[in-house]
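Collaborator request, handled under Task 6.
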Amino acid sequence: MMEQEPIRVLSVDDHPLLREGIAAIINAQPDMTLVAQAATGCDAIRKFDEHRPDVTLMDLRLPDMSGIDAMIAIRTAFAEARIIMLTTFEGDVEIHRALEAGARAYMLKSMPTKELVEAIRQVHAGKKRV
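Structure tokens returned to the collaborator:
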């Protein structure tokens, strides 16, 4: 059996502690690797272009623009981009807007670690998850 390439993940969040936690979770998975981190929407767009990750974890609220706007910018250049929106907010309007803009999943930051890694695997496999 051939060795599977790891799922390459980009983490976008303006909170350093959360980015470090996500990095630890991703890098602890045998089938995943964190390729880059970003703290702003502009940085996320730049890092996506540079690293072309398989899956991007995008915070909904960033200091320079919304995560949805950053996702739209990324998906305009890379229509195949697979992005999971992460948020502390459960608002239906935001969920609908994110999914309409092309998010493959919308998840709360309060979810268990196991759910996050499963969502990454599902989105990488071409599925959606809310």
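The cover message to the collaborator said: "The mean pLDDT is 94. The chain is about 40% helix and 20% strand. Please let us know whether this matches your experimental observations."
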